[in-house]
Write a structure and sequence with these properties.
By secondary structure, the protein is α+β, with helices and mostly antiparallel strands. The chain contains four helices and twelve strands; from the N terminus they run αββαβββββαβββββα. Helices cover about 25% and strands about 30% of the residues. α3 packs across α4.
Length: about 230
């Protein structure tokens, strides 16, 4: 197993859910393989649910609805096809990726409600820094109103569910290089009124570790006990 995974620091469980934090960048393919194995173990009853917090090296991922024309610079970073829903997105240093593996049969077997819970989780976590994250009925992700009709995405959401066990999850921008999003049309949403932002871009001196604390507290509020 990759060094960044094997050295992951495991936090105490929250509501019976194992929390894992990887210190170094985790290659995308290694992360997907680890998720696949864990999902199978959860479904078999051999492992508890898990939330895995990590960062990836710079890369693009193409979800099941990705359109080829939305990949503007295909040679800029590696491009990974993935089984999650959604379109193109960017992952890289300074972005907190949260892979969420929950058993919806033990919770609420409703995928739409699960996605809404993920949105609420991110919104509550951002509120800890006085950031008003908002959902949009016609656009995936969590958005920040910048005024003057401008809205920037601060978090992307893409999920997959197999036999009622979830994987993939959310990606929240703390301090990534926002120019790296220029190689794609993020989540297929273009136009001068829509952009990408981060906590640091909003003028907040927030670290990945700060966000992790907010995420753990918000998770308890939103998901609680299964």
């Amino acid at each position: 197993m990759h060094k960044a995974i094997s050295q992951a620091a495991e936090n105490p469980r929250i509501s019976g859910v194992e929390w894992r934090v990887s210190d170094g960048p985790v290659p995308y393919e290694a992360a997907v393989a680890a998720m696949e194995a864990r999902v199978a173990d959860i479904r078999a009853g051999d492992a508890p649910e898990m939330v895995w917090l990590l960062e990836h090296p710079p890369l693009y991922t193409a979800g099941t609805s990705a359109r080829p024309e939305d990949l503007l610079e295909g040679n800029r970073f590696p491009v990974h096809q993935t089984g999650r829903g959604g379109q193109f997105t960017y992952h890289g240093p300074g972005q907190r990726v949260c892979y969420v593996m929950l058993d919806l049969q033990k919770r609420t077997p409703d995928v739409r409600q699960y996605v809404r819970n993920l949105e609420d989780w991110v919104i509550h976590a951002l509120a800890a820094f006085n950031v008003k994250g908002e959902r949009r009925d016609d656009r995936v992700g969590i958005w920040v109103d910048r005024g003057g009709g401008r809205e920037d995405k601060i978090a992307a959401i893409g999920v997959r569910v197999r036999r009622w066990v979830t994987f993939h999850g959310v990606a929240i921008n703390v301090e990534p290089d926002l120019s790296h999003f220029d190689g794609i049309v993020p989540c297929g949403i273009a136009g001068q009124d829509f952009g990408v932002t981060s906590l640091v871009d909003l003028g907040l001196p927030v670290t990945i570790a700060d966000l992790d604390v907010a995420l753990s507290e918000a998770f308890q509020k939103v998901f609680g006990e299964p």
